[in-house]
Amino acid sequence: MLRSLLIGLSAGSRALTPLATVSEAARSGQLSDANPAVRLLAHPLFSAGSKALAAGELWGDKLKSAPDRIVPAGIAARLLAGGLSGAALAPRKHLLLGAALGAGAAVAASYVTFDARMRALRRWGQTSTGLVEDALTVGAAQWVVRGAK
Questions:
Q1: Among 15, 4, 106, which Cα is nearest to 54's?
Q2: Is the N end or the C end of the chain the one with fewer CB atoms within 10 Å?
């Protein structure tokens, strides 16, 4: 259940990167396919689509026109991505709890990471803070998924 919570926390800064990471782990057999969420995420179209969307999110975040992550659409994306990722990392009998932990952590972390990013942005600028946040999110998601089976 800890993995569900942690993947949700990483979804607070980038909604789609943790989802793409979990999807790739599901596709490559690193997660138990007894879990229905894993079967969905393992589908080749879902895996390819989530990676493309995550790449777009990583690129778009550096643009001045990028919306804040705490706007309703950003919160909704984090809620869904954190919930689905959390469900996939939970044991089958705790699927709903994993989804709730992932979704709740993603929403809470979105506000915390937004505040931290705004503070850092004033000092170091949009692109450099975004790149650091990207690296932290990718690394965290990879770390959480590693050995999850």
A1: 15
A2: C
